[in-house]
Amino acid sequence: MAFIIFAETNESMLVFKSVDELQFWLDQKRSEGHSIGFAPTMGALHQGHLELVKKAKSEGDLAVVSIFVNPTQFNDAKDLEKYPRTPGMDMELLMSVDCDAVFLPGVEEVYPPGKEYSVAMDFKSLDSLMEGAFRPGHFAGMASVVWRLLEIVQPQNLYMGQKDFQQWTIVHEMLHQLGSPTHLVMCPTVRETDGLAMSSRNTRLTPEMREVAPIIYQTLTAAAGLLQTYPVAEVVAMALEQLENAGLKPEYFCLVDGFTLREIENRDSSTFVVACTAAWAGDVRLIDNAILKNQEA
Ligand code: AMP
Question: Would residue 34 show up in a list of annotated catalytic residues for this protein?
């Protein structure tokens, strides 16, 4: 059966704007026995996103990427408006890593009017800590759109980055609670050579802020050594001071248990310790994290 009729083709990469057309193609591919790996993104792609696609290609047959700037996860209208959009470059980058299909839906395609799209999960306070405390409603919007996209794509594997550790943890919990057959894969954070985590927001940094921003990762990783000598509260205080002294405005710096995201009491109170931070670099909000201890791996 012919199936490419609906899609715009970009050389060998298919670009779908409608759910029905994407699902028609996916059903066809599944019936031919192909496995599907899926990476949801908000576009303005960089190497961090491309690594998700490469991993999907290395572990399965077809890689599908969605590009959708989800309005329901922005609690600040200005942040949504300022979010970078680079559609032409995104297509070129995705083709360069042999992405098979891109889903580029409009808002009404993802959220057809008259239907409720909020995922029924118990966030167990994972959504109110750290990022959740500063971005109310963000994770409810994020989880709901990921769930909706999974409903559409139904992949075997879902690829998401460690860069957004709290997001990953919440999606992991959601898949577990809702009995999803999709397997969630964590992809390591891709960094610039000076350690700054790649982010679509980095393009908005001033040259001065771009120069100081690598202190974020240095501070996160230094916490592992400091934790050997100092109590948690002192490590956190030193980290906040270091970020402030560099000219950043940290919102939080937390040493948490990687499963519950609750702050640890001391270095031995968890087998999985993650340092997480968010800091303003001028008017750009950056987040990053480092796994300091993982005895679960
Ligand atoms: P975003 O477009 O920012 O919503 O990100 C889409 C996906 O790419 C999420 O799973 C992110 O965690 C992941 N991602 C973003 N930046 C990086 C990075 N520097 N390294 C690895 N994964 C990343």
Answer: no
